[in-house]
């Protein structure tokens, strides 16, 4: 867990074991403090904890707060503030992986990457392992950083020499330093503006193939759910009655959720109102159906897999398809209601349609 200590405001990283009587509850007496980071100010103190694809624990640390990083902590390799840290929870104290970029040399051993302002929401792509960091800006822009694979050791994301792609502190940039600039930014004024980015996840669910591989993010001051591709292409979507998005969630199936105010919402692709079956040589009939459906394929590419989901994203049925033009599928075990069907061909292409069962 990552928490702010009440007595002095320090950030504490601690480990707890589950209760022997209830695996859904932590044993309050089992706490082991792994790292304490003093905090000079009261903002930029919270952060995300995630295990990386390498099994190590990554910790997002803000620059300590105030405004503009007045003590230049984000660029100081002897400070843990303004950094992404990495710990080995299976090792003995001080829990330092030997491959950390500053382990055993000048600089704090815990540091994995530097030059961050307030990376309170970030995540790994559960398929590729890519790192996506949403870093809250100062006065001008919000930014998204992207590093492929399990890279990024020793990366410098620029703050407070740069805010986004622009110089923030004149004379700050050091000769010979290679900075990792954002894959995407958006402004604090004008078109598609905001004030404080909330990072999410790369979509890796099965219900909405068109969203696969896109990183989702929002802004606390706007009513939008946005996506960015690895090439930096951003799509902005204004969602009625959604404001102040504070966090994203991802379930075990890879489906995504957001929290706005005190309400949890599930993200879905409104394009499902238009089935991708017909334009790809696939027909699902009858629809609405009762008891049995037929799946006809004239695309020239054999279909391999049929899946049926409820509208919450729960997989209810999976069936391997025969290499024939029409497969028949019994649905008598499925209750009446609205469902999502996906089919996949041997090339890995997925197509989606709604199905009503009566």
Summarize the structure.
The protein has 358 residues and is mainly β. The chain has no helices and 27 strands. The strands form eight sheets. The chain has a four-stranded antiparallel beta sheet, with no helix packed on it.
Primary descriptors:
four-stranded antiparallel beta sheet; Neuraminidase; elongated; Immunoglobulin-like; 358 residues
Describe this structure in words.
The structure is a single chain. It contains no helices and 27 strands. It has 358 residues and is mainly beta. It folds into 2 domains: 2-188, TolB, C-terminal domain (Neuraminidase, 6 Propeller), CATH 2.120.10.30; 276-357, Immunoglobulin-like (Sandwich). The strands form 8 sheets. It has a 4-stranded antiparallel sheet, with no helix packed on it.
Our measurement of the CA-to-CA distance between the termini, rounded to an integer number of angstroms, reads 47 Å
Ranges where pLDDT stays below 50 over 5 or more residues in a row are none
- In spatial order, strands of the major sheet run 4-5-6-7
Q: Class of the largest domain in CATH? A: Mainly Beta
What is the CATH homologous superfamily assignment of the largest domain? TolB, C-terminal domain
| Domains (count) | 2
What composes the largest sheet?
4 strands, antiparallel
CATH architectural type of the largest domain: 6 Propeller
Helices and strands, in order, run as EEEEEEEEEEEEEEEEEEEEEEEEEEE
Q: Total strand count, please? A: 27
Shape: elongated
Question: Taking all residues together, what is the mean pLDDT?
Answer: 93
CATH topology heading of the largest domain: Neuraminidase
**Beta-sheet strand percentage?**
35-45%
Helix vs. strand class: mainly beta
Oligomer: single chain
What is the radius of gyration computed over CA atoms, rounded to a whole number of angstroms?
Answer: 24 Å
């Amino acid at each position: 867990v990552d928490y702010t200590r009440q007595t002095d405001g320090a950030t504490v990283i601690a480990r707890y074991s589950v209760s022997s009587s209830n695996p859904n509850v932590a044993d309050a007496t089992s706490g082991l403090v792994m790292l304490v980071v003093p905090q000079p100010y009261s903002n930029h103190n919270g952060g995300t904890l995630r295990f990386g694809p390498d099994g190590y624990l990554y910790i997002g640390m803000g620059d300590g707060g105030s405004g503009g990083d007045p003590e230049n902590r984000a660029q100081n390799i002897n400070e843990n503030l303004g950094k992404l840290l990495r710990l080995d929870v299976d090792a003995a104290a001080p829990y330092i992986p030997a491959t950390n970029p500053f382990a055993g040399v000048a600089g704090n051993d815990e540091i994995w990457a530097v030059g961050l302002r307030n990376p309170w929401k970030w995540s790994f792509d559960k398929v590729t392992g890519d790192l996506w960091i949403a870093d809250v800006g100062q006065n001008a822009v919000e930014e998204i950083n992207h590093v492929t694979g399990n890279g990024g050791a020793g990366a410098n994301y620029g703050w407070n020499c740069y805010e986004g792609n622009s110089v923030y502190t004149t004379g700050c940039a050091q000769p010979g330093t290679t900075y990792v600039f954002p894959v995407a930014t958006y402004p604090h004024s004008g078109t598609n503006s905001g004030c404080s980015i909330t990072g999410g996840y790369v979509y890796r669910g099965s219900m909405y193939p068109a969203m696969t591989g896109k990183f989702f993010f929002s802004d606390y001051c706007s009513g939008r759910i946005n996506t960015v591709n690895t090439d930096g292409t951003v799509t902005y979507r204004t969602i009625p009655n959604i404001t102040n998005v504070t966090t994203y969630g991802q379930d075990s199936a890879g489906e995504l959720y957001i929290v706005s105010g005190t309400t949890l919402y599930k993200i879905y692709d409104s394009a499902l109102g238009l089935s991708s079956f017909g334009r790809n040589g696939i027909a699902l009939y009858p629809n609405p159906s009762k008891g049995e459906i037929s799946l006809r394929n004239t695309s020239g590419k054999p279909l391999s897999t049929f899946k049926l989901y409820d509208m919450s994203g729960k997989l209810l049925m999976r069936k391997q398809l025969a290499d024939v033009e029409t497969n028949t599928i019994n649905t008598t075990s499925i209750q009446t209601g609205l469902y999502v069907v996906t089919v996949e061909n041997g090339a890995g292409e997925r197509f989606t349609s709604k199905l009503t069962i009566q």
